[in-house]
Amino acid sequence: MANLSVNLCGVTLKNPVIAASGTFGFGREFHELYDIGTLGGVSTKGLTMEARAGNPTPRIAESRGVILNAVGLQNPGVEHFIACDLEWLRSTGTAVIANVAGKTLDDYRAICEKLDGLVDMVELNISCPNVKSGGMAFGIKPQSVEEVTKVAKSGLKKTPLMVKLSPNVESIATNALAAQNGGADCVSLINTLTGMAIDIERRRPIIANNTGGVSGAGVKPIAVRMTYEVSQAVNIPVVGMGGITRAEDAIEFLMAGATAVQVGTANFTDPFAMPKIIDGLNAWCDRHGVQNVSELTGTLTLNQR
User: Fold this and answer.
1) Residue 128 annotated as catalytic
2) Which of 4, 82, 163, 206 could staple 61 via S-S, CB 3.0–4.6 A?
3) How much is the pTM?
4) Residue 45 pLDDT more than 80?
């Protein structure tokens, strides 16, 4: 059996499979089905300083090979998480990655300060609108990516910082470099693509918010390409995600340069998706004589043109 453990910014993960934020809650429901301590890690539902009710419904729509969501960061707030969920989640033995968001730079600093030393890693959601910049997301321009990363990092003295990159940009590699320059210990990608689904009988968008984030199997080729581009641009670890439904998908991301992967939408269609992916990684490594899964990272060789 292969050694599936990986080192991510000094944090040892049992395997490279992490539950993606927004698709796993805080893990309690899935723990009723299997031991989530067998996962490499859990990236929590996005946390904000205050509790949020999220966007009006409907806020999820299905399409072929993908889903759209505009949940709007519904969450109980960071204080509730620390008081009611953190101790339990840590007790499972999985690595705890707190996904955080804010409306201002001060929000990001404050929430990082609250979580510093309490979780294994903080993942920065920078796809949120910056209310002091006309609603433009923090993650759109390299300058704002570097700035918000630097501010968040200033609130973390003990805990590594992962920055989750938006694909809705001119160059995700440039933004990854900006995150690295701002002090990020690693980056994760891709966050959702922006999309729309239309009810042709009503001639209106299905989602109340009009647009939503697109995720699911259909985005995988885009996510793999962006993971490769980013891994070539930065010298910090990369965590890949986007459309992973089976072990072979995860291996593509590893070969493209990822140290670990996150699995999101697949958990909706099959709650046992991640245990199956972990088993599949073991089986693939055994068949190919791979002793350590970390050996796969960055082994892609491009075709000669």
Assistant:
1) yes
2) 206
3) 0.97
4) yes
Residue 137 confidence class, pLDDT cut points 50, 70, 90: confident
**Among residues 9, 84, 128, 285, which one is catalytic?**
128
User: For residue 26, what are the contacts with CB-CB under 8 A and spacing of at least 6?
Assistant: 42, 44, 45, 81, 85, 88, 89
C-beta of residue 40 within 8 angstroms of C-beta of residue 17:
yes
Domains and CATH numbers, the chain: 6-296 (3.20.20.70)
Residue-level pLDDT at 253 = 99
> In 10 A of CB 234, how many CB atoms?
20
Residues in contact with 139: Cβ distance below 8 Å, sequence separation at least 6, in sequence order: 126, 127, 145, 148, 164, 165, 166, 169, 175, 191
* CA gap 115, 94 in Å, rounded: 17
3-state secondary structure of 248: helix
Measure the N-to-C terminal CA separation of the chain; round to a whole number of Å: 38
Give 62's strand partners.
Answer: 67
What pLDDT does 134 receive?
57
